[in-house]
Amino acid sequence: MSDQTDAQLARSVALAAAEVLRDLCVAGACPDTELGDRGDKDANALILRLLHAARPDDYVLSEEAADDGLRCAARRVWVVDPLDGTREFRERREDWAVHIGLAIDGVPVTGAVALPAAHRVFATDDAPPAFAPAPQRPRMVVSRSRAHPIVLAVAEAIGAELVPMGSAGAKAMAVVQGDAEIYLHAGGQYEWDNCAPVAVALAAGLFASRIDGSALVYNCRDPLLPDLLICRREYAEQVLAAVAAATHLLP
């Protein structure tokens, strides 16, 4: 078993996967038509190997691996997305990520999010950021192609500026690093899409919840976790109120 802390382990695994993925993006390293599948496969294999070696008694829930139902009875479960934003990765953009999260008793306590193309990694053992004063008009990161109607309605209600972006990890880290104030998502995600980003956001002092204000719970039998709010704490009440006023737009 590794003598690293959980946060150190999450960071080191995220960095190792980031390096593998960056190497695949080098011209000629992998045919463009195979890039997404190869990235998912290679990063997943490395992450599983490193986590099992360092924490052999823990379970892992990965987007790219068969789900072992025994994890549901476990206290410690690593929730990982080896390549969040496969489309952006294939397009060789910067807004894709690696997510390494750890849920203990369903709570996202530890995690790391790497943005490999930007050579950045954010982890729960980072020093909390010092945020600039909140702008008069908040910036809200949204999907590049399919922002949910409720997200658009909330943005209009609070006067937010929309910032289109790729992966969930990239969006969440935009709030962590002060490039946006709000990340609101509705319409479908899974635990691996947001466990690590939520852990990092909470450690940074941000607010995170479901869009009805309830807690985000992980290691559920069904890993579907369809909605999410990460934001500066001073915006949480306003955003949740705007969501409540727009619930008629939910399915």
What do these coordinates show?
The chain has 251 residues and is an alpha/beta fold. The chain is 36% helix and 22% strand. The strands form two sheets. The chain has a five-stranded mixed sheet. Strand 4 and strand 5 form a beta hairpin. Helix 4 packs across helix 7.
Tag the structure with descriptive keywords.
22% strand, alpha/beta, CysQ/Inositol_MonoPase, 5-stranded mixed sheet, D-Maltodextrin-Binding Protein, domain 2, Fructose-1,6-Bisphosphatase, Chain A, domain 1, 2 domains
Terminal CA distance: 46 Å
Major sheet characteristics? 5 strands, mixed
Output mean pLDDT.
94
Distinct helical segment count: 7
Total strand count, please? 10
CATH superfamily of the largest domain: Fructose-1,6-Bisphosphatase, subunit A, domain 1
**Outline:** globular
CATH 2nd-level architecture of the largest domain: 2-Layer Sandwich
CATH class of the largest domain: Alpha Beta
Computed over alpha carbons, the radius of gyration is 17 Å
Whole-number tally of structural domains:
2
Instruction: Please bin the fraction of helical residues.
Output: 25-40%
Q: List the helices and strands in order.
A: HHEEHEEEEHEHEHEEH
Overall SS class? alpha/beta
Spans of at least 5 consecutive residues whose pLDDT stays below 50 are: none
CATH topology of the largest domain: Fructose-1,6-Bisphosphatase, Chain A, domain 1
Query: Hey, roughly how much beta strand do the residues contain?
Result: 15-25%
Give, in spatial order, the strands making up the sheet with the most strands. 1-2-3-4-5
